[in-house]
From TrEMBL:
<feature type="domain" description="Histone deacetylase">
    <location>
        <begin position="18"/>
        <end position="288"/>
    </location>
</feature>
<dbReference type="InterPro" id="IPR037138">
    <property type="entry name" value="His_deacetylse_dom_sf"/>
</dbReference>
<dbReference type="InterPro" id="IPR023696">
    <property type="entry name" value="Ureohydrolase_dom_sf"/>
</dbReference>
<keyword id="KW-0378">Hydrolase</keyword>
<dbReference type="InterPro" id="IPR044150">
    <property type="entry name" value="HDAC_classIV"/>
</dbReference>
<dbReference type="InterPro" id="IPR000286">
    <property type="entry name" value="HDACs"/>
</dbReference>
<protein>
    <submittedName>
        <fullName>Histone deacetylase</fullName>
    </submittedName>
</protein>
<dbReference type="Pfam" id="PF00850">
    <property type="entry name" value="Hist_deacetyl"/>
</dbReference>
<dbReference type="InterPro" id="IPR023801">
    <property type="entry name" value="His_deacetylse_dom"/>
</dbReference>
<comment type="similarity">
    <text>Belongs to the histone deacetylase family.</text>
</comment>
Length: 300
């Protein structure tokens, strides 16, 4: 199983107050190695996006602002981070990592990125800790290269994938599905091809029932040649930004459902980690680690 990770994913340049829970990008690979889920041979270091690749998804004006460090104060606030050029460098590698994961998934069935899932980034701006939209970039690259003709985005982060929905609102070859907490960020939702807004405190049973009722039929309808799975673990009850009430085991069952369906339908799946903001970093890392464990157990 191929997993995208590079030391450049780290947030060491950020002030201490901005680093939590970004430590997960350091701790998750260590945990997976410690538990024997992965070995060093599983990891690959992704390349950086080219300007041409960036401009297939993001606007020239936005890219110029990122490249020259000329975002306005409001634009910087909307990203959630103090601006630093290393955020751009980091984002270029992470987004290319998701694209490379898609290429590996075409061969192996599944591949995962330690980071990514930056679904709040629009073509012309960043939002919500997202600079580049990695799933949108990877999707556009696959379509540009003619490697697939139909893509399904399965976004199960607790927050709606607003940027992804907007980027692909007029692209029939990419079907966007977002199942999220309805009364949560972003306040102003976009229109995915399919949105399911869940009420606050939705727990395992209801969540899994809705997903089981929806996803198999959606796969049949869309008939995708690639699935991008945004596997945010901010759906669990301990998450301070989530507002749902799933257990860690329920979140693992969610992942099992997605991977089992992808495997049964023989659809390659590229996974981005998405959000996770529990008060204890150990809860975040353990929930994310389950995604890798399930993939490893089902595919290898």
């Amino acid at each position: 199983m191929k997993v995208a990770f590079s030391p450049i994913y780290r947030y060491h340049h950020l002030p201490a107050g901005h680093r939590f829970p970004m430590e997960k990008y350091d701790l998750l690979p260590q945990q997976l190695l410690y538990e024997g889920v992965l070995t060093e041979k599983n990891f690959f270091h992704p390349k950086s996006l080219s300007e041409e690749q960036i401009l297939r998804t993001h606007t020239a004006e936005y890219w110029h602002k990122l490249n020259t460090g000329t975002l306005s104060a409001k634009e910087i606030r909307n990203t959630g981070f103090p601006f630093h050029e290393s955020l751009v460098t980091r984002g270029r590698h992470i987004a290319h990592g998701t694209f490379e994961c898609a290429l590996h998934a075409l061969r192996d069935g599944v591949a995962l990125n330690i980071a990514g899932g930056t679904h709040h980034a629009y073509a012309d701006r960043g939002e919500g800790f997202c600079i580049f939209n990695d799933i949108a970039i990877a999707s556009n690259e696959l379509l540009h290269l003619g490697l697939v003709n139909q893509i399904l985005v399965v976004d199960l982060d607790v927050h709606q994938g607003n940027g992804t929905a907007k980027i692909f609102e007029n692209e029939p070859r990419v079907f966007t599905f977002s199942m999220h907490c309805e009364h949560n960020y972003p306040l102003q939702k976009e229109h995915s091809d399919l949105d399911i807004g869940l009420k606050d405190q939705t727990g395992d049973e209801e969540y899994l029932e809705v997903l089981q009722h929806t996803l198999p039929a959606l796969i049949e309808k869309v008939n995708p040649q690639m699935i991008f799975f945004q596997s945010g673990v901010d759906v669990i009850a301990t998450d301070k930004l989530g507002r749902l009430a799933m257990t860690r085991d329920g979140c693992k069952k969610r992942d099992e459902m997605v991977f089992s369906l992808c495997k049964a339908y023989q659809i390659p799946v590229a996974v981005s980690m998405g959000g996770g903001y529990s008060h204890r970093i150990a809860d975040i890392v353990a929930a994310h680690a389950n995604t890798f464990k399930v993939a490893q157990e089902l595919y290898f």
